[in-house]
Design brief:
It is a single chain. The protein is of the alpha+beta class. It folds into 3 domains: 3-123, Arc Repressor Mutant, subunit A (Orthogonal Bundle); 127-184, no CATH class; 191-304, Immunoglobulin-like. It contains 10 helices and 13 strands. The strands form 3 sheets. It has a 5-stranded mixed beta sheet with strand order 4-2-3-1-13. The chain has a 4-stranded mixed beta sheet with strand order 5-7-10-9, covered by helices on one side. The protein has a 4-stranded mixed beta sheet with strand order 6-12-11-8, with no helix packed on it. Strand 11 (280-288) and strand 12 form a beta hairpin. Helix 1 packs parallel to helix 4, helix 3 packs across helix 4 and helix 7 packs antiparallel against helix 8. The radius of gyration is 21 Å and the shape is globular. 39% of the residues are buried.
Amino acid sequence: MNRRNEVLRAVAEAAKILTEFPTGNRTSFDIVGAITERGIPLLFRPLENLLGTVVAIGGISGIMVTTQRDLHVQRFTLAHELGHILLGHQLSLDRTIEVAGRNAPAARPVEEVAADTFASELLGPKRLVMESAKRQGWTKQKLHQPDNIYQLSLRLGISYQAACWALVTSKVLSSSQAKGLQGAPVKNQKQALAPTEFIVNSWADVWALTKADTETSLEAGPDDLFAVHVQDHASAGYLWQLVDTGSSAKIVGERCPNPDFAYGEQSTRVVYVRFNDRGKHRLVFEHLRPWNKATLDHIEIDVDGHGKEHVGHARRFRLEAVARAA
């Protein structure tokens, strides 16, 4: 099997799926939705020493993915297994997955490189990379910085390492630069964004949000922390306030990175928000005058805070089944 031809086939298949399933206001590709809407059976199990597999029963190929790993690994594994199916590969038992995609080591089997490439092209395509970069004001040089790569990875719903290689595919980084950057500890990026005491789960992520994220939909974990950066125009009486998150939201603290601003200047604050429950949330801040509610600006972000999938069918499938039964 020719590696180059298989990689090109994988790239073409990923492009077709991206066209078939537009992302809308999501910053990440809806891999669970794409699989379930195609009618491919999908189950999650606490697999031991196995990330995922394609199984065939009665001529129908289905996907099984472990519940033992985090959301980012689940998503990449789902895309990898979907790649195996669409590329016509035989039964697969995947103990490892290579996030470098087409840049995987030469010793990796061709079918696995093709499935890796499909997953990388589907979850970290140039279009989604560029959309986030444009929205956040990340220039090519800024996407050489680990903190911005980390935030890009959150918005794409992939690991930090996978985001490094997605930037290679998008011709933002070279392979050697990706190899150098992918070893940067994500822990350092989290601690630079928030006080350690605000990070209750070492596996949770810290999202740096600004007005640029307005009208986007994010897929996050239930323990993730949201560091919302706002600029108050206090001299005119305008302050940013959290006005709508539902009953499960909690402001866990605030920080003023630059307390020595001059009178009349806009002052910057970071407001830290966490949701107490799994589920779908809406994060709404308004830049208003507290005494008369006159509003200057707003931030509105949808957050799916369910996190990784648990044992059984995909969460969406279960919820839809309950709705139909009701």
